[in-house]
Write a structure and sequence with these properties.
This is Hemerythrin domain-containing protein. With 225 residues, this protein is mainly α. The chain has nine helices and no strands.
């Protein structure tokens, strides 16, 4: 574990909020997208299942990066302040992860069968997941990010973002940035792009809006979900 950074002005953690906006939107819409798939329509179930696999994998990787790179530093540096929310965050993570596991267990079968029973079960799981996820993201923004802003260095914060990018296939990078762009703060999205490796910094922003529009039309039937 690295030592605590020297006292400075709080770092900017708004990029995390930008990620959360994307997650709230897509998980809020997930159950209705599933329910709109007609029984036996395997072409449509594959399109939707690929989208659901993408967002659930992104959420899992997001939580993994926090668990490995953020929580240990906060526990070491501000133990008294983090203690009251450790149990809450861990409980929320466990509840979300349990539902994600059930979703991931069900998703491959429904993807290939488009069976009504699996569709309805999958939609119900997303219905159950969203309120807890939204509550968790709210708690992070209200209680965790202020602690992080003054307890980790800018370099350490950027390590968190780089860890998330490192596990992405290159083909998904334009779509991810497009997900951020759609409802995210333009200033923050520009900052995210500036901190990215050169390939992402110069090429991906040019493709991001197009990638999001194409994906949203395919999944949601509109470019403005």
């Amino acid at each position: 574990m690295t030592t605590a950074p020297a006292a400075t002005d709080p770092i900017d953690t708004r990029d995390m909020v930008c990620v959360h906006v994307f997650l709230r939107r897509e998980f809020r819409l997930a159950a209705s997208v599933v329910r709109e798939v007609s029984a036996g329509d395997r072409h449509r179930s594959r399109v939707v299942a690929d989208h659901l696999e993408f967002i659930t994998r992104f959420l899992h990787n997001h939580h993994t990066a926090e668990d490995e790179l953020l929580w240990p530093r906060l526990r070491e540096r501000v133990p008294d302040e983090i203690a009251p929310i450790v149990h809450l965050m861990e409980t929320q993570h466990e509840a979300v992860d349990s539902l994600l596991q059930q979703i991931n267990d069900l998703l491959p079968g429904w993807r290939e069968s488009a069976a009504t029973k699996d569709r309805d079960r999958l939609a119900a799981l997303f219905d159950a997941l969203y309120p807890g996820l939204a509550e968790h993201l709210d708690a992070e923004e209200q209680r965790l990010l202020p602690l992080a802003a003054r307890s980790v260095s800018l370099k350490e914060w950027h390590e968190l973002g780089k860890a998330g990018v490192a596990v992405l296939p290159r083909s998904e990078m334009p779509l991810v940035l497009g997900m951020f762009q759609y409802e995210g703060d333009p200033v923050v999205v520009a900052q995210i792009a500036r901190e990215a490796p050169p390939l992402i910094r110069f090429i991906v922003p040019l493709l991001a809006r197009r990638a999001f529009r194409k994906h949203a039309l395919s999944v949601h039937g509109t470019s403005t979900p």
